[in-house]
Amino acid sequence: MTDLSIGQTATRPVGRVSALLRRAGADWRQYVIYIGFAAIFVIFALTLNDKGFLQSNNLLNIPRQASVVAVAAVAMTFVIASAEIDLSVGSLAGLAGIAAAFGSHHGGLVMAILAALGVGLLVGTINGLLVTIVKIPSFLVTLSMLWMIRGFGQWRTSAKGQPIAAAAFKTIFGSNSMRIVWLVVFAVIGTIVLNKTRAGRFVLATGGNRTAAEFSGISTKRVKFWVFVASSVCAAFAGMILAANLNNTGKYEYGNGLELSVIAAVILGGTSLFGGKGSVPGTIFGALFVQLIGNGLLLTGLESSQLDIIKGGIIVVAVALRRERKGVR
Amino acid sequence: MADHRDGGTNSPDPVIAMANICKSFNNNVVLDSVDFELLRGEVHVLAGGNGAGKSTLMKILQGVYSMDSGSIEINGQRVNIGSIHGARAAGIGMVFQEFSLVPTLSVARNVFLGNERRSSLGFLDDGDSVERTRAVFADMGVDIDPTITMGNLGTAYWQLTEIAKAIAQDAKVLILDEPTASLAKDEVDALFALVRRLTDNGISVIYISHRMDEIFRIGDRITVLRDGQRVQTSPIADLTAADVVHAIVGRKVESAFEWKPRSVDRSGAPLLEVRHLNVGTRVRDVSFTAHRGEIIGLAGLMGAGRTELARALFGIDHIDSGDVLIRGERVHLTNSGNAIAAGVALIPEDRRDQGLVLEHSVRDNLLLTLLGRFRRGPLLNDRKGSAIAAELIDKLSVKTASQKLAVGRLSGGNQQKVVIGKWLGADPDILIMDEPTAGVDIGTKTEIVERIRALGDLGKVVIVISSELPELLAVADRVIVLRSGAIDRTIERADIADEHALQLAIQGVAP
After folding, report:
1. Domains in chain B and their CATH numbers?
2. What is the CB neighbour count within 10 angstroms for residue A269?
3. Which residues are CB-neighbours of B160 under 8 A, at least 6 positions away?
4. Residue B149 half-sphere exposure toward CB, CA atoms < 13 A
5. Helix or strand run (H / E) with residue B276
6. Would you give the DSSP letter of residue A136?
7. Taking CB atoms and an 8 Å limit, are A201 and B148 in contact across chains?
8. Which of B59, B104, B137, B354 to substitute to test the interface with A, most A CBs within 10 Å?
9. What are residue B418's phi and psi, to 5 degrees?
């Protein structure tokens, strides 16, 4: 309470006009990701037209390549909005591909999918229980989980790629059109759940003020548990897209570093790192934005190492424009 | 219900009947066979001093604590309130002092939090909750845009939103705990008008307050608790302010703390002089002086500006105008470093938040303010530090197994001693203590009272803020009574007959 009232007591809505003005003022910062996406897109369209930027295949590559990050990031939006973090999604995506390969040898396509999602369910349950029951901070739980999963995958496969013995798997998860379909499906479901269901509202309340949520009759433990389960299952799904796309093969290291791209997409999209605020469409555009920059800069002939530097810089600028700072609302 | 003061116009059926409620914490009896009855549409004031049992009784009603024995009936039916949820289902709404709102959500979403409006498909219907919130606010006669984000609104609006939240959940009983503490005068008027509107609609209000003027303005009946027992329930119209104060204070034959008159030499120049100090709206034109060896009591109701004055003198709150002179020299108190350099120390009200690093050892906490004293070159001299800590622990008789024990594991009283020790080591000339005896046991209270006297005898200025009047009366040479941020009166201790008289002065009802 004290933390909120300082500097706010003087804020009184004098009338609807000032309220509207203030909301409009707050709004453009919320929409930085969309403005940034549009601005960069226009710049690339004007400068890189002769290099084929606007060709439909190049443009469609952006959502295709963003699909892995986007699918995992939809669930990460819920995790971060509830004021938690999940660092295990990258390793888990790698392990899910291995599990799919393993399942495919025992029951084809169906078992491949069930095995991958089952691994996600298991990891999510463990993460959720450790955070809510054992009460270890999620940063530590999922950081440990990151190493354990990666080590387990490397050990069980002797660090070799595991082919998925189901050709349909590649079509369903890895084909050009299906990758875009999955991105859209997760975006729509995530948006509806966060904005239109009690579950979504409970997540925002839990992250915004846990005590207030408890006093409003919300079991914040249950909310946090399910958020981790959702995160891991979606990460496993992202892992299937990843594996299908990499020669229909699962390998422990395929998801390395994915968690960072996922978190970057969520934060770029306007979800508060301190919880309580979140936007799934923002997250999707966050993932597309990073891919757009990569796509355009690659066309200019930059090396991928130079690309990383520019990407990092642009993310800092975008987040700074949003003014996401501690203690500032 | 034309005349609310009458107290007899309410329909006779009780909404809540609590009978023979008993509650103990570790053999410490907090409530002893307390009866409490709330009638439909009445404002029932619950009064009593610190530790009288008010908040425990209300927490039992809200399902936060369970009672040891007794019964609760709601609308004539015996109920078993096991949880916050259960209380809400029974129609009891609490307006929490520490607000239960989520700053990142809109007003309407907060009002329906945990109770969301849904369409036939099961999806949230924000349009509907906005409309209903608007309707609730219209009923309440307040003008808040339900779509605005909670965090953009000021304190008064948070409180109104809390009330709207309770009403939207169909609460028949509202508990308001010191609701006016952070409100300006016109906001208080609006709140009282709202309370009247609610009671006219059949909602009952339990109103917890220490302020006599409010009690008489808004209350229909009053129940006074003292030391865990009910001492009085009657229509307010039958009582005078003196009656109420008397019931709250009781006739304590012997006080645990005896006043020992001290002689203070006020002939020379004062050590501390405050001239026309203004701090925001909370401290207004405050002037006073203090001489070496003087102990000043700061009294007043919650929100009277005591804590704000203390914070300003310690350089935390920004001083808008006025001067502070220490040893005759004007000092600029722009941060706590300045204040410490000028010889001022503040022992804050909330020791767990502001006074101690709970995870750190007793030793490290004691030495935090005097790290400069035991350096050897750029490094800290451990042996010397331990010696200083040991001396302080001994001087204050802190009960701790070792210097290295985490301070969070000590009892409240011993934690408070560590906070005091932390500042004693720094040897300030002016020591401000905000509620130094809150939440400590009686034995430690006695020690703290003696410690304050000893500091005065050493020639320091001690400013004590306390809501516990016996302690204040035991140590103060002079009592400054604050009201709405300004000095209402300054009374020599010798001119205060007893706690009763001081309470009346604080309430502003004494001649």
Report:
1. 1-91+212-251 (3.40.50.300), 272-507 (3.40.50.300)
2. 29
3. B137, B140, B142, B144, B191, B194
4. 20
5. strand B272-279
6. -
7. no
8. B104
9. -65, -40
So what's the pLDDT on residue B317? 87
Domains in chain A: boundaries = 14-322
In DSSP notation, A192-244 reads HHHHHSHHHHHHHHHHH-HHHHHHTT--HHHHHHHHHHHHHHHHHHHHHHHHH
Q: How far is A219 from chain B (nearest CA, A)?
A: 10
For the CA atoms of A30, A36, A37, A38, what is the dihedral angle to 10 degrees?
A: 110
Q: Give the CATH number of domain A14-322.
A: 1.10.3470
- Whether A201 and B116 lie within 8 Å, measured CB to CB: yes
Q: B-chain residues within 8 Å CB-CB of A22?
A: 152
Please state the rounded mean pLDDT for residues B373-388.
Answer: 72
Which 8-state DSSP code applies to residue B493? G
Position B464 confidence tier, pLDDT thresholds 50, 70, 90: very high
Q: DSSP 3-state assignment of B114?
A: coil
B263, with CB counted inside 10 A (0-12, 13-18, 19+), is exposed
Helix H segments across A82-175? 89-132, 138-157, 167-169
- Cross-chain Cβ contact B100/A215 below 8 Å: yes
What's the CA gap between B331 and B324, in Å, rounded? 6
Q: Answer yes or no: are the C-beta atoms of B357 and B364 closer than 8 Å.
A: yes
pLDDT digits (tens, 9 = 90+) for A193-211: 999 898 999 999 999 988 8
Cα dihedral: B358, B364, B366, B369 (round 10):
-100
Range in A125-134, A143-152, A167-176, B497-506 with the lowest mean pLDDT: B497-506
**Residue of B485, B52, B450, B408 whose CA lies nearest to B227:** B52
B481 φ/ψ angles, rounded to the nearest 5 degrees = -100, 120
Could you tell me if A223 and A206 are in contact, meaning their C-beta atoms sit under 8 angstroms apart?
Answer: yes
Q: How many residues does chain A have?
A: 329
The CA–CA distances, whole Å, from B473 to A317, B359, B494 equal 59, 35, 10
Tell me how many residue pairs between chain A and chain B have CB atoms under 8 A apart: 102
Q: Annotate B382-443 with three-state secondary structure.
A: HHHHHHHHHHHHHHCCCCCCCCCCEHHHCCHHHHHHHHHHHHHHHCCCEEEEECCCCCCCHH
User: Do the Cβ atoms of A217 and B85 come within 8 Å?
Assistant: yes
Q: What is the DSSP letter of B118?
A: B
Q: So what's the pLDDT on residue B121?
A: 83
pLDDT at residue number B96: 62
**Contact, A190 vs A75, CB < 8 A?**
yes
Q: Which of B96, B103, B145 is closest, CB to CB, to A4? A: B103
Angstrom distances, CA of residue B475 to CA of B412, B413, B436, B507: 21, 18, 12, 21
Q: Count the helix, strand and coil residues of chain A and give each as a percent rounded to the nearest 5.
A: 75, 0, 25
**Average pLDDT for A108-133:** 96
**Is residue A23 less than 8 Å (CB to CB) from chain B?**
yes
pLDDT tens digit sequence for B57-109: 988 888 878 899 999 988 888 888 777 777 777 777 766 655 678 988 999 99
Residues of chain A with C-beta less than 8 angstroms from the C-beta of B116: 198, 201
* Nearest-neighbour CA in chain A from B285: distance (Å): 21
Q: Report yes or no: B2 and B159 within 8 Å, Cβ to Cβ.
A: no
Q: What is the pLDDT of residue B4?
A: 45
Residue A130, token pair as written in the block: 């450790």
Token reading at B247: 């019931």
Q: Is the pLDDT of residue B334 over 70?
A: yes
The contacts of residue A131 (CB under 8 Å, 6+ apart) are A84, A137, A138, A141, A224, A225, A228
Three state DSSP letters for A237-283: HHHHHHHHHCCCEECCCCCCCHHHHHHHHHHHCCCCCCCCCCCHHHH
